[in-house]
Amino acid sequence: MKTNDFPAYDLTALILAGGASSRMGTNKAFLQIGSESIIERIDRAVSPVASRVNIVANEKEKYQFLGRKVVSDHYVKQGPLAGLEAGLSSLETQWAFVAACDMPLVSTRLAETMYSFTSKRDVDVVLPVISGKHHPLFALYHQRILPKVRNCLEQGERRMFDVLKDVSVVEVDESSFIKSGWTEEDVLRSFFNMNHPEDFEKAKQWLADQK
Questions:
Q1: What are the two backbone dihedrals, phi and then psi, of residue 78, each rounded to the nearest 5 degrees?
Q2: Are 131 and 173 in contact (CB under 8 A)?
Q3: Rounded to an integer, what distance in angstroms lies between the CA atom of residue 200 and that of residue 171?
Q4: Residue 88, annotated ligand binder?
Q5: Which of 2, 20, 39, 165 is a plausible cystine mate for 29, CB 3.0–4.6 Å?
Q6: Reported pTM
């Protein structure tokens, strides 16, 4: 649902779902925080700024309840890069905001701030680098890099970082967000990555403290 506070942009949110989640022991997308699952939280956060939201998952039937378009990998068992290819192939917008289901503290404000960095000329990728850690699975990609993504997959290059070679990448760190009005604590929490059960418990506690 769109709000007056956040205009929808020429942007599709691609939520990457259905990963192995081996360290968590269960599918992160369906972990519950309060009355909603992680994937529902992310959907709710990104939908005010995205003109559409697509889910990238290979078990389509599990995600039909979201009422979103669900797209599956064309390159089977090739990891998250195949998910990026499937998502970019589904675009009807110039930009894709890729969000994996391991960052439960995503907010609408975060998505909008990241989109603001696309205003830099000829940028292909907006890549957050927070506390020295790159976040290629929580980044913005222009649809024109789709041929590059496909070429990497055809050549057996499956790492997300393989795509970042020879394209225009803008890296945004904590200082970039602070200049946009964020506090450092807000940035670090927003990019909190959830891989283990104890991480999930920490995320739930942080959200409870905000109420």
A1: -115, 15
A2: no
A3: 27
A4: no
A5: 39
A6: 0.91
Q: Work out the pLDDT band at 3, boundaries 50, 70, 90.
A: very low
Instruction: Quick: pLDDT tens for 124-137.
Output: 999 999 999 999 99
pLDDT at 60 over 50: yes
Hey, what amino acid is at 184? E
Annotated binding residue at 179?
A: no
* Measured distance CA(98)–CA(211) in Å, rounded: 27
Residue extents of the structural domains in the chain: 9-210
Token pair of 30, please? 């369906």
16 is in an annotated binding site: yes
Torsion sign (Cα): 134, 137, 142, 147: positive
Known binding residue 28? Answer is: yes
- Give the CATH class of 9-210: alpha beta
Task: Choose among 127, 149, 130: nearest CA to 139.
Answer: 127
Q: Taking 70 as the threshold, does the pLDDT of residue 146 lie above it?
A: yes
Which of 79, 134, 137 lies closest to 106 in space, CA to CA? 137
18 annotated as belonging to a binding site for a ligand: yes
